[in-house]
């Protein structure tokens, strides 16, 4: 499994170039970045050279489409999705991901109908470029009542929804934090097929009651109470070999420098990978 980073939790990065350089310096193998932005700023050849120079691949891109709001906003984003997919594919990235909030101000059944159609369309566009589409269920309890109507926040519901979307390139963005806040176990991971997982996020949680774990209260891998060795071993047992990307969401921006935070991230990965006997 590749050690990966997102920019979340790394403080005020000056540029994508700085992010890439720090990731490589501290032994990471994958970065989640905006592939299209990288191509637009460096050219295709320049982007390829930058990644190759630092021995990195792109783990995943984010979905550049607003699918949660109006139809007009959704449709306006589709041309950029095609451009982003083309750029990602040309740089060797095969994953695109989005998150699914566990409640909504829309009527849930109507929102489900709209979201299913919209995400199916996104999956079809991504699939034309050989890119898989990961949906991330979001587990923290406080978000389940943040908006008026409950929506989806469990693994089982998300898998059922993926089946309903009906495109073979759709799977899970599987996040250790949401696995934990749903009270899932290693056995739940082992029930999955590896082809159901598109991408993985890793982070840790403070020692507070499960119902009080906040989405923006995440801490670095190995510094909290999540059984990350079990999480990684479960993924290894089902044959997952893709990127495991750190994503740290905090209530306030980190005060430390990006370099110190990436170094701290490396220490966390070293700890949890060693505990899971993963090289």
TrEMBL record:
SUPFAM superfamilies: Xylose isomerase-like. Gene3D superfamilies: Divalent-metal-dependent TIM barrel enzymes (3.20.20.150). Pfam families: AP_endonuc_2. Keywords: Isomerase. GO terms for molecular function: isomerase activity. Residues 20-252 form the Xylose isomerase-like TIM barrel domain. PANTHER family: HYDROXYPYRUVATE ISOMERASE (PTHR12110), XYLOSE ISOMERASE-LIKE TIM BARREL DOMAIN-CONTAINING PROTEIN (PTHR12110:SF21). This is Sugar phosphate isomerase.
